[in-house]
Amino acid sequence: MRCIKLMGASVIISNEIDTFIFLIQLKPKNMKNKLLFSWILSMVIGMDAFAQSSSLYPNDYLSPEFHASRRAAFKEKISDKGMAVFFASQVRVRNNDITYQYAQNKNFYYLTGLDEPNAVLFLFKKPVTILGKTDTEFIFIQNRDPFKELWTGKILGVEGFKQKSHMEQVFTYDKLMASTLPIAQVDSVYSLYRNEGIFGKYERREEPLTRMANMLDSLIIAHNKPLAQRSTMQILSKLRGIKHPEEIALIKKAAEISVMGHNDVMRSIKPGMKEYQAQAIMEYHFKNQGSEYTGYPSINGAAGNACVLHYITNLKEIKAGELLLSDCAAEYHGYSADVTRTVPANGKFSEAQKQIYEIVLQAQDAGIAACKAGLPFSGVDAASRKVVNEGLIKLGIAANDKEARKYFPHGTSHHLGLDVHDMGPRTLEAGVVLTVEPGIYIPAGSNCDQKWWDIGVRIEDDILVTQDAPINLSAGSPRTVAEIEKMAKGKSIFK
Ligand SMILES: [Mn+2]
Questions:
Q1: Contact, 165 vs 67, CB < 8 A?
Q2: What is the CATH number of the domain that holds 177?
Q3: 3-state DSSP helix/strand/coil % of the chain, to nearest 5
Q4: How far does residue 437's CA lie from ligand 1's centre (Å)?
Q5: Tens of pLDDT along 125-168?
Q6: What phi and psi values does residue 20 have, to the nearest 5 degrees?
Q7: Domain residue limits at 10
Q8: Ranges of the chain with pLDDT below 70
Q9: Ligand 1 mean position to 414 CA, how many Å?
Q10: Does 151 map to a domain?
Q11: How far is the CA of 435 from the centre of ligand 1 (A)?
């Protein structure tokens, strides 16, 4: 079943199991059959390559020019004798011999557009010579492998990647040895793995990459030369934080797909539905629109579960009178949206729910209004929090700002892009995309009137900062009480 991409593109093979058995039987016997085996595989892979180049597949990916421009911008920012190193993500095992769907390291993808494991990118400001070639950018990638490709689909290989990218110095991964590195011409190494301090946490987040970092260490140690260790994080944060039009188009698409899911959950929700059924409706629309992944595990929590910020169990039955908080979004060609809506199970907010909801909505409006070029990133949180604090104090739920914080314990915003929690500048400027997502969560047992218990509300949209007014990329999903109640009356494909 995991050969779908390969098989789906080929008319030669109609039954993958039969074909596999056929090929396995052929493989070990003799030289003639070995040649036949190779020929069949190359035909299959050739057909796959042909199919992928046709209009049958999506063609709205980031362009090679985009990736080339990002490498150029990065190279500008390193020192004259600096060498920057980026590793592709490894394939991760889920259990036994089953792996997770491959997810590329986002920095690596940003700079290369390559969606394969076992690859290393080297960038230099000034040209250096590696394997007889003088240039400022070199990539080592996995070799083609007919047997592997039978199982998991086409590997680009050197020629394939040269065609796809604007890189000229493309080598196979097995050429990367200690002697390959131009250490004599280098005085510092930029990587993601060098900072034990404030960026240390990022190392832990990409745990499997430490194996690759260790390999780099051993390559450098082999040269017995002290090199300054620098982090790529600050440079990448500056670059990735300001989105280019090509990136904005993909985030917008991810947001629009996410909106379809949210709107259909609003239309289809009813008492007795399970949280996972709301998730199923949501993710149906993501997949149906060509989203490769969810941007993050879908959060669908009813009543008290809405008060668990990253609740992803999604197993409870949604009862009449409860609110369902859905924090779900699609990832499209590597870019994630991040959208939250909170909707009543029976299509109508109770009086208490409405009071809390209106505070969060006002807080979000205040936050969105603060998304202006030149203003501090932290100003968005300040604007939203002020409204939440005042609202909670007015309703007698909190006595002061400190108590109010218990009910709104997370920040209002984060940058959004290749990572759902993306990197970006502390001062807003045109091209920044950030979430605005205030919330109020009052779990049962809280020190307030019981009528507020088990109400959890978050409203989250994806905001593009421009020279003029901020643009809400997820505005297609209603946010007001009246609009949500109206949407709830609409016809779902699932109702
Ligand atoms: Mn978010």
A1: yes
A2: 3.40.350.10
A3: 40, 20, 40
A4: 7
A5: 999 999 999 999 999 999 999 999 999 999 999 999 999 998 99
A6: -65, -45
A7: 4-53
A8: 1-54, 193-222
A9: 7
A10: yes
A11: 6
